Amino acid sequence: MEKANLVEAAQTVLQLNEREGFTIPAEGLYPHQWLWDSCFIAIGLRHYDTKRAQQEILSLLRGQWANGMLPHMMLDSGILHRQDREIWRSYVSPNAPDKIATSGITQPPMLAEAVVQVGKKLSRIERHTWYRRVFTSLVAYHEWLYAERDPHQEGLTLQIHPWETGLDNNPAWVSELREHQMPTWIRLIGKLHLDRLFTFMRRDTRFVPPGQRLTTLDALAFYSVQHRLRRKQYDIRRVLNHSLFAIEDLAFNCIFIRANKHLRHIAKTIGEDLPKPLIDNMAKTENALDQLWDAYSAQYYSRNFVTHNLIKTTTIATLLPLYAGCISKERAKRLVELLHSTMQYGPKYPVPSVAISSEWFSEHRYWQGPTWLNTNWLVVQGLKHYGYHEEAEKIISSSLKLVEQSGFSEYFSPLDGSPAGAKNFSWTAALTIDFLKTQP
Ligand code: GLC
């Protein structure tokens, strides 16, 4: 397909998924507004409609909690989705907003990146106004991440549900989930092979074949974690009490490090001072990333917050310190080696969400093997930062090939490029536009 046609087709998808003031990820499966989705969507929209890109971000801020948290979902108020609002019941927390129902957890802090990327497309005066408009909310969000998610002030933030990582059922989290958060009733269902009965109750598998989603037992465990958080009214002190299930997620913290840099840039541009404790915390996070490095396997991993054990399961997160941009050139070189290896992260259609040689690898099961355009975008930014332009171009062209061949699917097999998950997926469309418009 011609470049211009591909851009046009991608814009049509974003048009199709547009709702009042924001864009849903995909019809049917994802009927609400998601936090990091809207950030990626804004990065695409900025190339042809800066107003709508700004609106996409502002509409996320409708959901901000009084304590600063940005929830990972802003729920549609339509009659059809009453069930989702009942699942979350954000009103159990005194911090939740009155005017809109939301989830009670967050997602990777991509907001500052999206704000800056949109800012690049504005005139100097417009950019200043734009930055000023979002500055207080952004600061409150980053302060909340430190206040609630770094209780020992060690620099790394913790996450309390796999959905907070955006890489939902990635093996590092699923292995911890199976170990620490699998209630007896779910184990029993597994032992008695009753999971098939529960499969009928799932909404996701009505839209996507079960083999492309998480297993029913894992899905039940996800819901049991969510249920526990709701019971604790999303109060972090109560949530952390007696729980071994809190993880300092590698991908989340890498994205946070880059977001902190963007926030410093925004503050400087508009001549505002960031609070001193926030500046100190930001510096701590960059240094703390080193604690997630395992010298033996020469890779970064997520870490269990309570036991302080690294979760030595390799996933796409392993490459995201490139995006964080605060690691040494030697470490960056080592990560690029992983991208060059066909059995690791360099198959025909990179970058797989799990290394090809991993026992977890499954080409179509989401976050356990497939290639996604959003993580490709993050890896590309990281590669460019460290001067690996050829490698970055290779990922951009294979990403474009995927969508040319199979349309704007949610994810793709890294082996043969076959599409999987939802169709007409918004961030796939948005980031296709960004890849095309930022190519030399
Ligand atoms: C899936 C993805 C998550 C995304 C959501 C909406 O749950 O794992 O990252 O935000 O869909 O698209």
Give a verbal description of the structure.
By secondary structure, the chain is mainly α. It has two domains: 3-313, Glycosyltransferase (Alpha/alpha barrel); 346-423 and 435-439, no CATH class. The chain has helices at residues 3-16, 35-45, 50-61, 82-88, 111-119, 124-149, 171-180, 184-191, 195-199, 204-207, 216-231, 236-240, 250-269, 276-288, 321-324, 329-340, 373-385, 389-406, 426-438; strands at 33-34, 73-74, 247-248, 293-294, 299-300, 302-304, 310-311, 411-412, 419-420. The strands form four sheets. Strands 3-6-7 form a three-stranded antiparallel beta sheet. Strand 4 and strand 5 form a beta hairpin. Helix 6 (124-149) packs across helix 13. The two termini are 18 Å apart. The protein binds alpha-D-glucopyranose. Alpha-D-glucopyranose is lined by residues 25, 30, 34, 36-37, 166, 168.
Number of domains as seen in the coordinates: 2
Classify the fold: give the CATH topology of the largest domain.
Glycosyltransferase
Overall pLDDT confidence? 96
Order of strands across the biggest sheet? 3-6-7
Structural class: mainly alpha
User: What CATH architecture of the largest domain do you see?
Assistant: Alpha/alpha barrel
Distance between the termini: 18 Å
User: How many helices does DSSP assign?
Assistant: 19
Strand content: under 5%
Query: Which overall shape is indicated by the principal axes computed on the Cα atoms?
Result: globular
Low-confidence parts: none
Query: What compounds are bound to the protein?
Result: alpha-D-glucopyranose
Radius of gyration using CA atoms only: 20 Å
Helix content: 40-55%
